[in-house]
Design a protein that fits this description.
58% of the residues lie in helices and 2% in strands. It contains seven helices and two strands, in the order αββαααααα. Strand 1 and strand 2 form a beta hairpin. Helix 1 runs antiparallel to helix 4 and helix 4 runs parallel beside helix 7. The radius of gyration is 18 Å and the shape is elongated.
């Protein structure tokens, strides 16, 4: 097998690992309740805020403060939400599908691509570029696999950040 095959394989593994906790969320059950699933308790603590911002920005900009009605929202990071709201407005895609399924896959794919290209540019070594995908994204204690989130020696922040679409977008932009 070529290194390119392994790069695609590693990227597929990373996409599955990073997006699978998000994939089932944002759907409705038989009684009409919105479902949120989480492999980690902190992953969806602010999804409701971001979904409401996305929906509000599709109707008015700048958004109002979600904690204090009638006042404008200041000193809050809503660039990613504004970007998703623009996509919702232009395409008509559901904000739930976009936030929990489409955008995370696109962001993780782009992030892995940028890791590969940056490592290739620095090393001119396809094996280093291929393995850099796993080393840069899966550096964790793997406690999430065992449903343990004790953050042993602070090794889980990479995984926690990667399952947060806003954090992935900030890594790509900056």
């Amino acid at each position: 097998f070529s290194m390119r095959f392994f790069a695609f394989l590693f990227t597929a593994i990373v996409v599955w690992a990073m997006v699978s906790p998000l994939w089932g969320s944002g759907r409705f059950d038989k009684t009409g309740n919105l479902l949120f699933f989480s492999g980690a308790s902190s992953v969806f603590s602010d999804a409701g805020v971001h979904l409401s911002l996305i929906e509000e920005i599709t109707h008015r900009f700048p958004p109002t403060n979600f904690a204090f009605g009638g006042t404008s929202l200041k000193n809050y990071h809503y660039l990613y939400d504004a970007f998703l709201a623009l996509i919702v407005k232009l395409t008509g895609i559901s904000s739930l599908d976009l936030y929990f399924r489409i955008a995370p896959v696109a962001l993780v794919l782009l992030f892995c691509f940028l890791i590969y290209k940056t490592t290739w540019y620095l090393t001119k070594n396809s094996a280093a570029a291929t393995f850099s995908i796993i080393f840069a994204t899966m550096t964790t204690s793997f406690g999430v696999i065992l449903n343990r989130h004790d953050n042993l020696f602070m090794t889980d922040p990479i995984y926690q950040m990667m399952t947060n679409p806003q954090a992935v977008a900030s890594l790509i932009i900056f």
